[in-house]
Amino acid sequence: MSHSLSTTDFSSYPPLARRFASDHIASLRSLPTVFCALLLKEISKYDWQFPAERNDLDRQLKWIESADSQAIDSVLAPFAALKISKGLMDMPWAEQPGLFIERLTAELWITHSIDAFYAAGKQYGAILQKIRSENDSAKSRLCIVFIGSGSERGTKPLFEKLQPNGTYFSRVDLSQGVADAIACIRDEATITSSPYQHWYVDGGVSDLHQHVGERKDPNICSVSYAELDPVRKRIVQAMNAVRTVSGNGPEQLRTVLDRMRPDYGSQAGSEDPVMREFVLRLFAEGSGTQIFSTTFVQWVGREILRRARPQSLFLRFRLRRTERSMDELLTEHTALGVDPQGSLVDADMGAYYTWINLQRLPGFEKSRFVVCFENGHEALAIGPGVPKATKSNSDCTLKNILTWAT
């Protein structure tokens, strides 16, 4: 390394991150600069990470500290072999790992070394996945997705991409479907009450309080597109401020959004710093979450599964705005109507992507996945208790399907 790490390099990190980095400084000093910077970028966000992410960091450092040195060297050697310019190496990369990685990526593209960087990351990713699988308990997760709120059925088949993997039900009584889904999530929360393990995500105004009997259930994390509108508008204003300046481009926009922090004076969101940062990142990093509620729900589901790795998750897609020019959508000067048919198409594909993301988690073979057409009588279930590529015309409810899928 061109620079020997010291605890002063972590002085700008938030408290928990600073302590974690300092506790493992001996191990961090042994790593190639590029890999160390990548790890420090994650460590610097420690205070705002979910327990699953903090466990990942802890396990990675334990692996580095306890694994065979030859095995470690073989995995980290590709990072050490990357040719980095002296100007980049002279940066305060440990103090500002995020900025270092941003400039490193640009340099690797210029020097045609980006493929080697990606290959090194893929090799280490396999190690990380093995570490997670060995330590994470194989949970029997539950994921419920509602699509089609306010949309007519149309002629296009629903759940087409999912049907080969589960059982399609054509006569489902969903008159109490939302209440049943929330009740099921609450039941799961009584079994496992760990933080951030149970979620309800709504593309409109949350109905959680109507079914819980109080404004908030402490065991369920609730995220609502409508209720987070102040956060969304703040991000849109920042985007407009960047894009209206001549010469600015995607890199400037990414830098501005990456450096934003939660506004604790905002009425939206939670006082929980982890949730506040999570909500901000949903709009600052998500592609299209600032514009379409359907994209928002899909992205939130992806991030919850990837980062929190929950026990139960209920996603409810709602009507999104009609597509317009980017200027109209971002400036919001024009009253925009809703697109029921487009919303249904988006949500149907969003449900499919959610199932794909669910499969990436340990123990997905035991998990239950149910998607329902809220404005009708159709549903599809994937789980250990239901056969694949099957259709059922029996009268049933969501409760029945959840029981059968177990």
Sheet with the most strands, sense and barrel status: 8 strands, mixed
Helix content: 40-55%
Q: How many strands appear in the DSSP assignment? A: 10
User: And the CATH topology of the largest domain?
Assistant: Alkaline Phosphatase, subunit A
CATH architecture of the largest domain: 3-Layer(aba) Sandwich
CATH class of the largest domain: Alpha Beta
User: What does the overall shape look like?
Assistant: globular
Mean pLDDT comes to 89
Number of DSSP helical runs? 17
User: β content, as a range?
Assistant: 5-15%
Amino- and carboxy-terminal Cα gap: 53 Å
Counting structural domains, the number is: 2
Gyration radius, in Å = 23 Å
Strand order of the largest sheet: 5-4-6-1-7-8-2-9
Q: pLDDT under 50 segments (min length 5)?
A: none
- Topology as a string of helices (H) and strands (E): HHHHHHHHEEEHEHEHHHHEHHEEEEH
Structural class: alpha/beta
